[in-house]
């Protein structure tokens, strides 16, 4: 298979071509969302997860292509498109085209959005962290997981995540590495460390939890779907947008955790993998 | 839903952005290919149908994104990727990235390729034909349909179509309108006429049939999957690549047929719609 140099070995969440950043995410009914989730929220989420990949690259929305699968339920499809359109409108992302297919009766829905952004002066990589860098995260972690688990106050965070596009543009000029937190803070931090060829440490007590969150920091840090930005900055550099310092990078390999200064073992699962 | 001006109202097969041409096609098991088709040929075809859309725009391959759905059959997936890679290699199309998801057991496969090409000096539209233009088509029509219907000599034309990329680049400088023949010559010609606000006529006796083809011209002209280029040129202009003159455009609406100079009624179906 011929690989483009801009593919970055397929190890990153987005590729680059002629000053554009390209990313594509597919969602599958029953895998990435629950069949009973409101269709508006499924559409919103498909847009949001792709926009979040652009945010991690500091890219500005330029256009997108939708590959839509019809299953014969026109009401569902219209509501899905309404939610998708709301997210695209909110973040200034025009629809360029795509494809619509019909699925056989009973097949789970499979929808793809390909998002294209204009690159800024710098496009951060996942693997650019350096030893000594500080690890930061925007916003709060764990809300989407609590919503998925049934907490009504957090349901909206699970159903309608808010990608950090403006923050991504501002941070892209500063960071050594950046990615979005889609599958769990610990899992994504371990991926950043691995891609950077470094060891990462996270202080669980520093992980920012949303107001009213009743779980543990470990629960929050292993839940997914928050779509916050995780980034590495040199020591002494303050981020351009509000964020929380949660750990750092050093020579070595792997992820280690602490709680109030004492080592903590890694949980059995660092996050959520969608089986891909 | 915010539409980009480059989307051309979603009425075309490809969109434009910053000098790039973008197209995306999804194939569904049991809809766009037969479950028993060799997986190498399914991969080849997914690449070919997207490359054919770029050919119709006169664009040169720049990069692509694959959204791959796994169903637990590793051998099938490897063979699919082999065939896809062969087509991408042949046409110089590098893989930029994409996404891989797992489908629930028993779900039909749904795979998407998004192809990006560099635009040439002119990007033909489907709807640019003018009254008086001559309608031309490259290659021969009907072979893929005969292969799908079981003719062994034509099976390869159904399984491994050859998109007309070089021809597309050469023709893009000349044509008033161009599109690829994916769903049937009559259906696609009717779409070109409709998009151009004109009437089209086709002489069935002029439709180029492949050597050894035993069906009628009407059968050939209503079968799909040939991936030849259909285009409109002003009268008196010879196409830059080998092609056959099959009809023309005039003021009015709709498609009319003739056979050896006598009018022929339109068949009940002009081609194949994939239910989308």
Structure overview:
Two copies of one chain form a homodimer. The first copy, chain A, has seven helices and twelve strands. Chain A is α+β, with helices and mostly antiparallel strands. The first copy, chain A, has two domains: 5-118, PurM-like, N-terminal domain (60s Ribosomal Protein L30, Chain: A, 2-Layer Sandwich), CATH 3.30.1330; 134-264, PurM-like C-terminal domain (Phosphoribosyl-aminoimidazole Synthetase, Chain A, domain 2, Alpha-Beta Complex). Chain A has a seven-stranded mixed β-sheet with strand order 7-9-6-10-8-11-12, with helices on both faces. A five-stranded mixed β-sheet of chain A has the order 1-2-5-3-4. In chain A, a hairpin with a 2-residue loop joins strand 11 and strand 12 (262-264). In chain A, helix 1 runs parallel beside helix 2 and helix 1 runs parallel beside helix 5 (165-172). Chain A is globular. The two termini of chain A are 19 Å apart. The model of chain A has no long low-confidence stretch (mean pLDDT 94). At the A-B interface, strand 2, strand 3, helix 2, strand 4 and strand 5 of A face strand 2, strand 3, helix 2, strand 4 and strand 5 of B.
Strand and helix layout:
2 copies of one chain form a homodimer.
Chain A: E1 15-17, E2 20-28, H1 39-56, E3 60-70, H2 74-90, E4 95-102, E5 110-118, E6 134-137, H3 143-148, H4 155-159, H5 165-172, E7 177-181, H6 185-196, E8 199-203, H7 217-222, E9 228-233, E10 244-250, E11 254-259, E12 262-264
Parallel strand pairs in A: 3-4, 8-11
Antiparallel strand pairs in A: 1-2, 2-5, 3-5, 6-9, 6-10, 7-9, 8-10, 11-12
Helix pairs in contact in A: 1-2, 1-5
